[in-house]
């Protein structure tokens, strides 16, 4: 994928990643911490994470095409390097989302008739899932920020004047 309506596809696809990664991270953490939220979201959680996972390589492939069609510099190269590191984070979001969804579905069947011992034995697993989800979610969001920051610097470096040119209305 190279161009969409005359614009580089990367410029359009990146908006999906910038929205979907933090949204998926937030949903994962909420579902890992609150099983009730996971039950309410149901299969939407892993489907959202799958869409996020698929959007990352589409965006990076479009970015590689764009990198080949712009004047290369250190900022563009750094942005491309950082972008290549997002896929493992997105994969982690997907795997954990699928695991939280699966585990919530398995425990939902036990209902209120489950013994206190069964519920207590699941607490360490839930705590571990919540901690791991928090770590992966934070890593993914921080990585998206770093990639976006480097992309903005690469795109806008020397691309604007620090003072108004006087041609527009700045009131």
Helix content: over 70%
H-E string: EEHHHHHH
**How many strands?**
2
**What is the strand arrangement across the widest sheet?**
1-2
In DSSP terms (H or I, runs of 4 or more residues), the helix count works out at: 6
Spans of at least 5 consecutive residues whose pLDDT stays below 50 are none
Derived structural class: mainly alpha
Share of residues in strands? under 5%
Mean pLDDT score, rounded?
89
Largest sheet: 2 strands, antiparallel
Q: Can you tell me the overall shape? A: elongated
Count of domains: 1
Q: What is the C-alpha radius of gyration, as a whole number of Å?
A: 21 Å
Query: What is the terminal separation in angstroms?
Result: 41 Å
InterPro entries: DUF2231_TM (IPR019251)
Transmembrane segments: 12-34, 41-58, 86-103, 123-142
Protein name: DUF2231 domain-containing protein
Domain DUF2231: 6-161
């Amino acid at each position: 994928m190279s161009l969409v309506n005359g614009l580089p596809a990367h410029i359009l696809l990146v908006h999906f990643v910038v929205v979907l990664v933090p949204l998926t991270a937030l949903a994962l953490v909420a579902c890992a911490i609150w099983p009730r939220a996971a039950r309410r979201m149901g299969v939407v959680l892993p489907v959202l994470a799958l869409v996020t996972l698929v959007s990352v390589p589409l965006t990076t492939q479009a970015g590689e095409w764009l990198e080949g069609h712009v004047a290369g510099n250190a900022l563009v190269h750094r942005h491309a390097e950082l972008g290549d590191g997002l896929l493992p984070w997105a994969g982690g979001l997907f795997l954990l989302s699928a695991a939280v969804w699966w585990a919530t579905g398995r425990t939902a069947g036990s209902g209120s008739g489950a013994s206190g011992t069964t519920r207590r034995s699941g607490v360490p697993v839930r705590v571990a899932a919540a901690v791991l989800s928090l770590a992966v979610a934070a890593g993914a969001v921080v990585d998206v920020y770093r990639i976006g920051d480097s992309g903005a610097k690469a795109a806008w470096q020397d691309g604007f004047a620090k003072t108004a040119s006087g041609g527009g209305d700045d009131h």
